[in-house]
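[recover] target loaded
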């Protein structure tokens, strides 16, 4: 267990809204399209590169950026990394980037990446850990202080369900249509210390909570804190973890632009003393469930009176409010892309379109590998 004395109480300040993006991808056997435990070999072939990291299973890999000033910078780094990964993977391995593999089942524990922490987590979490072939998009946002991070974490909580619905890309699970837009979110939330972050009063409150978790061995380190959004004191960031992985780079960058612009908007409200009153816990939980279940087709609860509105229209309205912030941040073209996703459908909807046409989950996976390979624009889907 991490000793309490080693819990660094200092928040290392970062330049506000600098970015770090982490993309978890699936490694697939090109012939069978099943998950392939090849990450140790691929990492060795990629050399000593900070752009790639191992993940829980050897059937997955993480592409990471450095500290980026703009969405364009992050796009450039991830584009170069995905090109390099495809080059090294060669003719035998395909890559996909969505939240869950459509038909891989249990029995993946033999493919655990050789790491002491991963072995500890699998031993502790058992069946839950055996279902951890889940693939997310994590976005770090630079914060100037721990207090700013906590206040913006609290302010962001009502928006997280909207971001989950927008990113939803895991409708299939263990060979079946789950009936959900994001099966990943449901499975991930079954892990200990996962799901919505608690409402925190201030930075001291966060330190007290994490000390209690460490003392009780609920977590072995801050890395085990799998909230939908969490502070990362060492990096000086807030890390958004709720989003499913995306099929191709342009969708990833649209999400990053939405998130960066949203936090610019929330900080403006914070500076003006206009942050909205906190939402009730039941509304946050219900909206997250609706995002998991119906994705962009959900009706969201918009106030404490129980008023509901179409999620897609709510997102359009939000994106319009963020346009000025996106202009100032230099990511307006990526925010425009987010509007287009609402019109043509997110990955969960596109996957179901392919399945309705082909009745084949392998066809769905082939479609996803093509979307990753072409990276910039989605492959057209016949409806």
């Amino acid at each position: 267990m991490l000793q309490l004395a080693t819990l660094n109480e200092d928040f290392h300040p970062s330049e506000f809204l600098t970015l770090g993006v982490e993309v978890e991808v699936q490694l697939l056997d090109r012939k069978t399209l099943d998950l392939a435990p090849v990450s140790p070999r691929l990492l060795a072939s990629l050399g000593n590169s900070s752009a790639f990291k191992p993940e829980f299973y050897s059937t997955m890999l993480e592409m990471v950026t450095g500290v980026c000033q703009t969405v364009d910078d992050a796009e450039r780094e991830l584009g170069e990394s995905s090109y390099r990964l495809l080059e090294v993977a060669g003719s035998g391995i395909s890559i996909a980037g969505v939240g869950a593999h459509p038909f891989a089942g249990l029995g993946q524990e033999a493919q655990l990446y050789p790491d002491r922490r991963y072995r500890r987590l699998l031993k502790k979490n058992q069946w839950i850990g055996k279902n951890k072939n889940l693939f997310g998009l994590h976005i770090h946002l630079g914060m100037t202080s721990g207090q700013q991070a906590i206040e913006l974490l609290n302010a962001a909580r009502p928006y997280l369900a909207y971001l989950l619905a927008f990113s939803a890309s895991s409708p299939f699970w263990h060979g079946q249509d789950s009936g959900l837009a994001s099966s990943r979110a449901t499975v991930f939330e079954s892990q200990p210390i996962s799901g919505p972050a608690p409402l925190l009063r201030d930075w001291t409150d966060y330190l007290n909570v994490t000390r209690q978790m460490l003392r009780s061995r609920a977590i072995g380190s801050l890395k085990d804190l799998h909230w939908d959004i969490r502070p990362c004191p060492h990096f000086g960031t807030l890390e958004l973890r709720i989003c499913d992985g995306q099929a191709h780079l342009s969708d990833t960058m649209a999400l990053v632009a939405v998130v960066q612009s949203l936090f610019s908007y929330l900080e403006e409200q914070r500076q003006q003393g206009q942050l909205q009153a906190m939402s009730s816990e039941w509304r946050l939980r219900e909206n997250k469930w609706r995002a998991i279940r119906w994705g962009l087709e959900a009706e969201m609860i918009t106030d404490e009176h129980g008023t509901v509105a179409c999620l897609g229209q709510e997102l359009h309205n939000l994106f319009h409010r963020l346009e000025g912030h996106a202009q100032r941040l230099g990511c307006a073209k990526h925010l425009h892309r987010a509007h287009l996703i609402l019109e043509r459908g997110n990955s969960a909807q596109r996957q179901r379109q392919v399945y309705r046409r082909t009745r084949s989950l392998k066809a769905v996976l082939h479609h996803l590998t093509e979307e990753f390979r072409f990276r910039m624009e989605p492959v057209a889907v016949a409806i």
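[recover] notes: The CA atoms of residues 10 and 233 lie 7 Å apart.
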